[in-house]
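User: I'm putting together a teaching handout on how sequence relates to shape, and I'd like one worked example. Could you take TIGR01244 family sulfur transferase from Marinomonas arenicola, show the sequence you're using, and then write out its predicted structure as tokens right after it?

Assistant: Happy to. First the sequence, then the structure tokens directly below it.
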Amino acid sequence: MIRKQITSHYSVSEQISLDDVDHLAESGVNLIIGNRPDNEEEGQLAFAEIAARAEKNHIKALHIPFAGGQMQASDVAAFKAALSTADNVHAFCRTGNRSSLIWEAANQAESAKKAPSKQFDVVIVGAGTAGIATAASLLKRNASVRICLIDPATDHFYQPGWTLVGGGVFKAASTRRNMADVIPKGVEWIKEAVQGFLPKDNEVVLETGQVIAYQQLIVASGLKLNWDAIEGLSDTLGHNGVTSNYRYDLAPYTWELAKNLDGGTALFTQPPMPIKCAGAPQKAMYLSCDHWLKQGLLDDIEVSFYNAGAVLFGVSDYVPALQSYIEKYQVNTHFTHNLVKVDGPNQLAYFSTKDENDQQIVIEKSFDMLHVCPPQCAPDFIRNSPLVDEAGWVDVDKETLQHTTFANIWSLGDVANSPNAKTMAAARKQAPVVAQNVYDALAKRSIKAIYDGYGSCPLTVERGKIVLAEFGYGGVVMPTFPNWLNDGTKPTWLAWILKEDLLPPFYWHGMLKGYEWFVKPTMRK
């Protein structure tokens, strides 16, 4: 059971077991609410069994079941009444989503009583790449539109640069700016965290209780790096040879480990999809191997790539080039192996996989260096909102990026459920689409801008060469440059120049300023 704490007094989870009831009781829970109908799937534990186990533990259990998308006012009323009878409540359903939604609905009436303290034409949740680029593009279309960006962060990062930090090419400081310096002029920045959404009232509720009203809402909150989903990982990050280029403060440690390793075992991991920049776990491995090869050390280092997926890369056109580097660097590949535990002090990694009889097993592997890509999910305040699909991502039309239920809500970047690669290049292509559609929606015109699923992954296979993977929906290859200039299926020096020298200034002085070079939105006729 993965328990999600919504407040200090209320938590949710997927379907619980009888043992989970015991653990909940031990943690102080005094009321369990089941929001899942019995017999929803074969083999499901009946609520009566859970209630009987709860009674043995001297805690209450209440069944308020409803099917997905069929929550009734009576369910909400019963739920709200139940909350008033206990001070530590846990609710469950199939995934935890329904239990989150009913809590949101029960609290909506109370939150809605508060008059909005501010009102804007456009509210953007998240001041990362997608949020700022969209705000800047929108202002290019209408400088008088009233926009606010909501984000508690004080720093803004050029995250694609962390691969090169981990490879000893960039200094970490070059990838950071003060958030105040990158917020577009004319946009109000609310430096607070979001608690929830009231889409029927066109309002966002902040953790302070402040209510912000909008005409159009853009959700660009990014995703959550779920370090705690791997047992023991959080306690050992940055120590004991355990690192990750997915964090600003850890990328320099990756290079320190690679520089100082002259023998032993180096492991690189990739979790189940979706993750941001699916090539990043391999990039760290290739740059480290390139260094060891040039230092004459590679024969003394056993390098292994443990991938929870079944293939090296999701777009087959780029696999041959990557496979040639797997062979060049003598990398041992292990597919369908998912990292589940790290014992940092003893330098042991544990992977879940299946044996020859298709039975789930856990294998142990020692390491001297371990580069981890963490599991990833939507932020808690998004997953516990009425805006998401069953998997917890904001539910949008994959072309217009408009919410499937609420016409004045849009989402882009890593948090949206559009089936594209979660990359900075995708956000760069999405931002003008959302900006144009929101601009038209504010003017009461029909929306026409569409997103084609474009994403890009510059795969740094060695220092000085990159395989520039560019593709759209369905894995269709979508190169920006003609083959005579740069063949993206092969490693090239030109792609390295693009990554190292051109893209960072392009990002800071182009994308975040609303310049839409190479990404003017396609319009429906």
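A couple of points you could highlight for students: Residues 119-223+378-523 form a domain with the FAD/NAD(P)-binding domain fold (CATH 3.50.50.60). The mean pLDDT is 94.
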